[in-house]
């Protein structure tokens, strides 16, 4: 009888492996946490899209929970995302844009065409701020708390469902803090 | 006419292809052959965050180009390989390392192969012991003698 039980070992190993691999099927390979979570927003000094003369830095993000959205005119998904960002702005959330690897003309064109939910847009033509944020594609969105610490990172498109399911709860959570 | 058209299209294709390959070539000057070697090896060991499984040295995605540029600048600044890898993981996470570090999250990854080898050794040891004991206890001295006698009798017949 005891010997018989040993024969079940391969089956048990197979089941364990199968469960692991089955779970793996449902995982999103491109989803991963930002390594900046819990850290201060990287320091930067860049001009704004609105005014080439005006320099801003990371202190821009202090004092209020802010969503920082990295976008670019060249990015088709950013265009699809704009209605959601406009809706978030209507609900009283402060949004700051980072115009990533873009030209001023194209950036202005984009905002005129698709709306401007941003209080201000940081102009990042070389992608230096984007690099320090670990941005590898647009759109990406960072939630920064009132102390200027990154609390949540959303890679890619924000769907209308995401607003209710993740963005709003996260904002409320860090506002209450 | 159709032949001409095909020729023209082929030429156009060749031209556009050579244009894209030209765009992918980056000209960099290195202080030494060693620095060039370090640059190449770093490019091979850092993974492009945008691509599922490609080193930044193999990828044409814009972020891979930015990372190669940054690797080059940091090498010029005299940073060590470890410092450059740290610089990248601080921004893009452990994902960019093809050889992940041993941390709380990766101990299973590094430990599992060693654990399986150990398990295999234990299982083999167990089997060997069981077999040896079985062969020792299979025949008593008297039985062995009788077996020898039987075998020998057969031989002599």
Assembly context of the chains: heterodimer
Q: How would you sum up the major sheet of chain A?
A: 5 strands, mixed
What is the CATH architecture annotation of chain A? 3-Layer(aba) Sandwich
Report helical residue fraction of chain A.
40-55%
Q: What is the residue-averaged pLDDT of chain A?
A: 92
Q: Can you count the beta strands of chain B?
A: 0
Unreliable spans of chain B are: 18-23
CATH top level class name of chain A: Alpha Beta
What's the CATH topology name of the largest domain in chain B?
Helicase, Ruva Protein, domain 3
Unreliable parts of chain A: none
Q: What overall form of chain A do the CA principal axes indicate?
A: elongated
What fraction of residues of chain A sit in β-strands? 15-25%
Q: Short summary of the structure?
A:
With 177 residues, chain A is α/β, with parallel strands linked by helices. Helix content of chain A is 40%, strand content 20%.
Keywords:
heterodimer, A: alpha/beta, Glutaredoxin, 6 helices, 7 strands, 40% helix, B: 157 residues, mainly alpha, Helicase, Ruva Protein, domain 3, 2 domains, 0% strand
Walk me through this protein's architecture.
The complex is a heterodimer of chains A (177) and B (157). Helices cover 40% and strands 20% of the residues of chain A. Chain A has 177 residues and is α/β, with parallel strands linked by helices. Chain A has a single domain, classed as Glutaredoxin. The radius of gyration of chain A is 21 Å and the shape is elongated. The mean pLDDT of chain A is 92. With 157 residues, chain B is mostly helical. Chain B folds into 2 domains: 30-96, Orthogonal Bundle (Helicase, Ruva Protein, domain 3), CATH 1.10.8; 107-156. Helices cover 71% and strands 0% of the residues of chain B. Chain B is built from 6 helices and no strands. Chain A binds chain B through residues 29-30, 32-36, 101, 127, 131-137, and chain B through 48-50, 52, 61-63, 66, 70, 89-95.
């Amino acid at each position: 009888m005891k010997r018989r039980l040993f024969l079940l070992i391969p089956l048990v190993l197979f089941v364990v492996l199968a469960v692991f691999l089955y779970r793996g099927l449902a995982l999103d390979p491109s989803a991963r946490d930002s390594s900046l979570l819990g850290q201060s927003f990287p320091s930067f000094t860049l001009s704004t899209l609105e005014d080439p003369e005006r320099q801003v830095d990371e202190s821009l993000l202090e004092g209020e929970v802010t969503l920082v959205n990295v976008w670019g005119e060249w990015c088709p998904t950013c265009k699809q995302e704009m209605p959601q960002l406009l809706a978030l702005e209507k609900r009283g959330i402060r949004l700051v844009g980072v115009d990533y690897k873009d030209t001023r003309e194209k950036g202005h064109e984009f905002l005129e065409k698709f709306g401007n939910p941003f209080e201000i847009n940081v102009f990042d033509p070389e992608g230096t701020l984007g690099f320090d944020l670990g941005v590898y594609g647009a759109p990406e969105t960072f939630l920064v708390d009132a102390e200027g610490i990154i609390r949540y990172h959303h890679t890619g498109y924000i769907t209308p469902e995401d607003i209710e399911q993740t963005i709003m709860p996260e904002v409320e959570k860090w506002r209450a803090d | 006419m159709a032949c001409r058209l095909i020729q023209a299209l082929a030429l156009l294709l060749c031209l556009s292809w050579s244009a894209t390959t030209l765009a992918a070539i980056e000209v960099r000057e290195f202080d030494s052959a060693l620095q060039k070697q370090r640059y190449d090896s770093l490019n091979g060991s850092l993974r492009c965050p945008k691509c599922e499984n490609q080193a930044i040295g193999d990828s044409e995605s814009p972020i891979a180009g930015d990372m190669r540029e940054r690797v080059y600048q940091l090498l010029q600044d005299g940073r060590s390989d470890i410092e450059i890898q740290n610089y990248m993981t601080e921004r893009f996470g452990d994902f960019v390392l093809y050889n992940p570090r041993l941390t709380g999250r990766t101990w299973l990854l590094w430990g599992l192969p060693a654990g399986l080898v150990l398990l295999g050794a234990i299982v083999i040891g167990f089997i060997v012991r069981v077999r040896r004991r079985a062969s020792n206890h299979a025949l008593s001295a008297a039985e062995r003698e009788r077996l020898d006698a039987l075998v020998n009798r057969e031989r002599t017949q």
